[in-house]
């Protein structure tokens, strides 16, 4: 089981899984009754014995990103032991006294590194700084985080806690960062295959590892506060890069918006899977062929948290935000122009991400 808790996860099976008709995913997601995030086994792509096996998995991934913007990826190649250790070391960091964590504060959107105290970030689709400030004051995100980038960056250095306090923290997340990057390369190769591009099309556009690894701690909170109007552990938002890998514990609370009906649905934790979603830059790259879907973190669903629970338990997650190279020019892929042409002007990765981070942090 992913994460650091011992709570048992019960994944409810909806009737339409048992009596699956011939409807396509595109038809199923039109209605909330049949909306779901597909589960895709990635082993056939990673260990393919033929191009046909690779193409089959690639098509499943691409279809999920076209219709939902999200997928549960299983058989992804990152061992449970590696993930469990990452959760353990993350938890050890967040247990540190506040004065120790505040010695390594997040202080520059260009760096995007360091500790972010509860209330500093308010993720949202809003871009007006005045409105965001009001939202932050009235309904701040109920979380704290630790941001880690590529460790060899010549300009922006990672901020690490003292090794004597958490001796395994730095080596754990240096390795985990690299492991996630390698999976990112494989998933982008599957996307290229599904779009009928050369399999290695994205390789030289993501090799600089301009990514962000975010450790997240959502402290226990009174349920009535979390369920109040406008309150959330993380407000509704899209992500900024190509893909996001979300490693969940068993508590739950992640919800995904149905792009067609605008209703939110739980992304219930499924042991052994990573939740993978499309970010804004991949949506722009693909001319919205892929969906950068809104999502949020709220009170867990009734199947995971009784409706009369006074307290919502603490939650841990780890998000790996995959990005193109900082100077990569993100403009519409030729295969995605369609009949109307490019929807978005070209933008560089760094300009877009720094702009979005500047808007959401105080």
From TrEMBL:
Alphabetized, the UniProt keywords read: Iron, Metal-binding, Oxidoreductase
Entry GO MF terms? metal ion binding; oxidoreductase activity
What SUPFAM superfamilies does this protein map onto? Clavaminate synthase-like
What InterPro entries does the record point to? DIOX_N, IPNS-like_FE2OG_OXY, IPNS-like_sf, Iron_ascorbate_oxido_reductase, Oxoglu/Fe-dep_dioxygenase_dom
Tell me where in this chain the Fe2OG dioxygenase domain is found: 209-324
Q: Which domain of life is it from?
A: Eukaryota
Record family assignment: Belongs to the iron/ascorbate-dependent oxidoreductase family.
* Name this polypeptide is given: Fe2OG dioxygenase domain-containing protein
The organism is Serendipita vermifera MAFF 305830
